[in-house]
Design a protein that fits this description.
Order of helices and strands: HEHEHEHEEEHEEEEHEHEHEHEEEE
Number of strands: 17
Structural class: alpha/beta
Shape: globular
Length: 399
């Protein structure tokens, strides 16, 4: 999902001295890595209010990955003119990652205007979804390598976002050939910086339909065959990859939940198993949208309970990473949120926050997780403890 950019709050600019410059110690690579995580968007826990501090404390106390894009979602253009860099906003967001996670992730998206046919030194945010032109693929790869050198503590990179700008309207299909060319340039450039950095793509949306013809299908619907073909092409022509990244929603593009919103959560688990078998790569959900009635707010207990069930099922299916888009409530996207908007409230934690943290700890530890749904209550267990959430009133019980 796309958000217009905004400067981070002043407190982050004062925190730039917290940036880590050295490499991650070798012993750190042996530690378990979080399975769950969050993607920071335009507004996040980077302010100086008590509500922001509460959100940061929650993130820091929970084993979660943290993801930030290089341009947009709180970060301005890092290279507004060729060879002229402006790092202050991205530095601020990476500082936020440093304070809240030991598993930072960067998404290499979007591209400066001059790489897209625009004017150097100018940013037209209406063109954020535009991909760089092919004659500038090497320039974008060079920018990616510069980012990797600047933030050596970041060991995971996603290349681009949802194939934005790579849709060929004339073919009514993804221009996966062009994307793969860009991906391969970026992959080579970053691996030259540090071959241990992990890189993944193609970050395609697994759109589902109630009916259709695709090898990836289930009671929840059918994944768009164009997304499957894009993954197959990328797999056959990529320079290399450390994981495969996708995103999707449990609601079909034609607005349905075959079997209901609870049954539809099986899509994420089924797709994870299918992707692992088809690609042989670890599977990342770069965005994850277990949906319910779209009229329900981000704070809805049902939205939280359905999301918790979907997360648990996907962890059990073997996903390596699941990133929750935008952990705080936002008006423009009604996805399950962990806390209220600190700009408009006290930033209180929502019912999903506690069970999400419980699942994050169990998943990181590699404990086997059970999940079931009965009488509008989702129940999770890991052999040591349990958590349940009532979809009607949001009551959470630990055992």
């Amino acid at each position: 999902m796309w958000r217009s950019p905004e400067l981070p709050r002043r407190s982050l600019l004062a925190a730039l001295s917290l940036l880590v410059v050295g490499a991650v110690p070798g012993s750190d690579r042996q530690r378990p890595r979080p399975v769950l995580g969050v993607t920071h968007t335009q507004y996040t826990a980077d302010g100086d209010s008590r509500a922001d501090a509460r959100a940061r404390d929650y993130l820091a106390a929970t084993p979660l990955a943290g993801n930030q894009h290089i341009m947009g979602w709180g970060a301005l253009d890092p290279e507004p003119s060729p060879g002229v860099f402006d790092w202050h906003t991205l530095d601020g967001r990476v500082s936020l990652l440093r304070r809240t996670t030991d598993d930072p992730v960067i998404t290499l998206c979007g591209a400066p205007d001059w790489m897209k046919g625009g004017r150097a030194g100018h940013t037209d945010w209406n063109e954020l979804e535009t991909a760089p032109r092919e004659e500038h693929f090497d320039d974008f790869a060079a920018l990616a390598a510069t980012v990797a050198r600047r933030y050596p503590q970041v060991r995971n990179y996603l290349v681009w976002n949802e194939l934005k700008g790579f849709y060929d309207s004339a073919r009514n299909d993804w221009d996966i050939e062009a994307y793969t060319k860009l991906y391969n340039r970026v992959y080579a450039a970053i691996k030259k910086v540090n071959p241990e950095i992990r890189i993944g793509g193609p970050y395609v949306v697994l759109d589902t339909w109630t009916d259709g013809d695709s090898p990836l299908t289930g009671p929840w619907g059918t994944v768009d065959s164009r997304a499957v073909a894009a993954i197959d092409y990328w797999m056959a022509n990529k320079a290399g990859a450390d994981f495969v990244a996708v995103d999707g929603s449990s609601r079909t593009r034609d607005g349905h939940f075959p079997g209901g919103d609870v049954a539809a959560t099986a899509m994420f688990a089924d797709a994870t198993r299918w992707l692992r078998e088809r690609t042989g790569l670890p599977v990342w959900w770069a965005e994850f949208y277990p949906d319910v009635d779209p009229a329900l707010p981000a704070s809805s207990p049902r939205r939280a309970a359905v999301a918790l069930l979907a997360l648990a099922r996907t962890v059990t299916a073997g996903a390596e990473k699941i990133l929750l888009w935008q952990p705080q409530e936002e008006d423009d996207l009604r996805s399950a949120a962990l806390w209220a908007d600190p700009r408009q409230s006290d930033g209180r934690l929502y019912p999903l926050a506690g069970p999400f943290a419980w699942l994050a700890r169990a998943a990181e530890a590699g404990r086997p997780i059970t999940a079931d749904w009965a009488d509008d209550v989702v129940r999770l267990g890991d052999g040591r403890s349990s958590v349940s959430m009532n979809a009607a009133d949001g009551t959470v019980t630990y055992g």
